[in-house]
Specification:
Elements (H helix, E strand, L loop, with lengths): L9 E11 L5 E7 L6 E2 L2 E2 L7 H13 L1 E5 L5 E8 L4 E16 L11 E5 H7 L3 H13 L6 H8 L6
Parallel strand pairs: 1-7
Antiparallel strand pairs: 1-2, 1-4, 2-3, 2-8, 5-7, 6-7
Helix pairs in contact: 2-3
């Protein structure tokens, strides 16, 4: 008897856009997916010839117009089912923190998605993917790291519009 092959997850990369508000609280930018309008973080497929963290930063620019400093190591991973026209794909997403410095006036998917800044706990309550919720809940313990709080607070004084 033939055993069924184990389901292999497709790889994706995501940016977790963050900033500090004027009170020093961490905020996360969530965007809507194009089809279901669920709240998500910018994500997409790896890009040939690019490191995963760079691809994540490019996704944030294309989907939300965000520019910032991206971490070279992921904060975590999660899996989800990606809706396709005729089936679903299991995807494993590596998530990289993006410390947002500014938002471009125009970007590739402007008008196709909505975006808003949320406090971390509120963002965790609004996303559907349990693994992303876990990543959001641990965010406060890893960002901003030692030596970056002052720089992050300075960036927060110039809020990024959405």
């Amino acid at each position: 008897m033939n055993k069924p092959k184990p389901l292999k997850a497709r790889k994706q990369v995501a940016a977790l856009p963050v900033r500090l508000d004027a009170a020093g609280r961490i905020q996360v930018l969530l965007i809507t997916s194009r089809e279901t309008k669920r709240l998500i973080v910018p994500k997409g497929w790896p890009m040939k010839g690019r490191k995963d963290y760079r691809a994540a930063a490019i996704e944030a620019q294309e989907e939300a117009g965000l520019i910032g400093r991206v971490a070279k190591k992921p904060i975590g991973t999660y899996t989800y089912w990606k809706r396709r026209p005729e089936h679903f794909d299991l995807c494993r997403v590596k998530v990289y923190i993006l410390a947002v410095e500014r938002q471009l006036p125009t970007w590739r998917e402007k008008g196709q998605r909505q975006g808003a800044w949320f406090l971390v706990d509120d963002a965790a309550d609004l996303v559907d993917d349990a693994g992303l919720v876990t990543i959001l809940r641990k965010l406060g313990s890893v960002w901003p790291g030692k030596g970056t709080r002052k720089a992050a607070a300075a960036r927060a004084r110039a809020p990024v519009p959405t």
